[in-house]
């Protein structure tokens, strides 16, 4: 699965790690993230992320 990078702050979403602090289990692809998910560092939405 592809990693995605936040265009605003440089945070990298790694599907292998997920985002457990925000209820996203390891193994969750970027596409499978809920639309309500936001960058855990700066709070922008998924549309601000690019494939790394
Ligand atoms: Zn960010």
Automatic annotation (TrEMBL):
Keyword terms, alphabetized: Electron transport, Iron, Metal-binding, Transport
Lineage, highest ranks first: Bacteria, Bacillati, Bacillota, Clostridia, Eubacteriales
Pfam family, one: Rubredoxin
Protein family according to the UniProt entry: Belongs to the rubredoxin family.
Domain Rubredoxin-like: 1-52
InterPro entries named in the record: Rubredoxin, Rubredoxin-like_dom, Rubredoxin_dom, Rubredoxin_ET, Rubredoxin_Fe_BS
Cofactor section: Fe(3+)
GO molecular function, one term: electron transfer activity
GO biological process, alphabetically ordered: alkane catabolic process
Highest taxon of the lineage: Bacteria
Binding site for Fe cation: 6, 9, 39, 42
Name of the protein described by the UniProt record: Rubredoxin
Cofactor stoichiometry and binding remark: Binds 1 Fe(3+) ion per subunit.
């Amino acid at each position: 699965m592809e990693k995605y990078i936040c265009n605003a702050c440089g945070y990298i979403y790694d599907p292998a790690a997920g985002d457990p602090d925000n209820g996203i289990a390891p193994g969750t692809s970027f596409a499978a993230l809920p639309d309500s998910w936001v960058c855990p560092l700066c709070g922008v939405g998924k549309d601000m992320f690019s494939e790394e």
